[in-house]
Amino acid sequence: LGNHEVAMIGGLVGNEKLFYTWLGQGGLNVLIEVANHNNLEREKNWLLSLKNKGLNLYQLAVHIKEYEDYLRQEGSVAILYNMLFSQEGTYHELFNNMKVFTQVDDVLYVHAGINLEWSESLRKEGIDMLNEKWQQALIDSQNGDFTEFNNFNKAGVARGLDGVGGPFWADFDGELERLPEQDIAQIAQNLKSIGVNAIVVGHSIKKTPTMSERFNKYGIKLIASDVGMSNYYTKGESGRGGVKIDVKGNIRAQSKEGIYK
């Protein structure tokens, strides 16, 4: 589960800031596809015209705002909402079972990264409990309560805000590499106490898989693996990429630039 999905979910259930953030991060294309698949020709053509104008986020928001009530009540936003949140929705089971944290053997997988606060929560509450809290946050958000949702969805200095970012928004070269030395040491201790020796993150655009030397110094292999999708975002062409860690701890990473061990 990543920041794009969280922005979409928050936007669909009424968080206006997240709604327009999502639209600017690919959400407009999603609504175009939904309108197309549901034969909403006029809406599809209107959304396409907005896309083709190359509007900035503010300009896009001005146009969408005028018809937002229709979109949420009858149009593509309403359809997408039902696809995700209706019990019979196409993606209901998928989205309601997505996890914030996943641990396989001694490897922790999280979309953006980890900070001291979240490492403490993992140590004290465990992965299963935090994932359950996220599921409850989804339910609460549908009822207009974003308290726990916002706790998971904190952004940091890389997005012009205070703090070090949460599991959806922490940036490898921003918040993670700027963490104080004592924080990294404590994070490593907290993670090792639950059997984690490596963290694989996405989110941060990288040309090749990259390992943090600062985390490595404390016995935690923090690997930025978003090399496939980043090629699509930056060059308009899809790429293969990822990280594989076997049971012996051997690391094999791949991007369009080659294979790394």
Strand order of the largest sheet: 1-2-3-5-4
Form type: elongated
What is the CA–CA distance across the termini?
Answer: 27 Å
Largest sheet: 5 strands, mixed
What is the compact description of this entry?
The chain has helices at about 5-10, 15-35, 40-50, 55-65, 70-75, 75-85, 90-95, 115-125, 125-140, 145-150, 170-175, 180-195, 215, 230-235; strands at about 100-105, 105-110, 200, 210, 220-225, 240-245, 250-255, 260.
Key traits:
261 residues; alpha/beta; five-stranded mixed β-sheet; three-stranded antiparallel β-sheet; 8 strands
Structural features, described:
This protein has helices at residues 3-12, 16-37, 41-52, 57-66, 68-73, 76-85, 92-95, 116-125, 127-142, 147-152, 172-176, 181-193, 213-216, 228-235, and strands spanning 101-104, 107-110, 198-201, 210-211, 221-224, 242-245, 251-255, 258-260. The chain is α/β, with parallel strands linked by helices. The protein has a five-stranded mixed sheet. It is built from 14 helices and eight strands.
How are the secondary structure elements laid out?
Layout: H1 3-12, H2 16-37, H3 41-52, H4 57-66, H5 68-73, H6 76-85, H7 92-95, E1 101-104, E2 107-110, H8 116-125, H9 127-142, H10 147-152, H11 172-176, H12 181-193, E3 198-201, E4 210-211, H13 213-216, E5 221-224, H14 228-235, E6 242-245, E7 251-255, E8 258-260
Parallel strand pairs: 2-3, 3-5
Antiparallel strand pairs: 1-2, 4-5, 6-7, 7-8
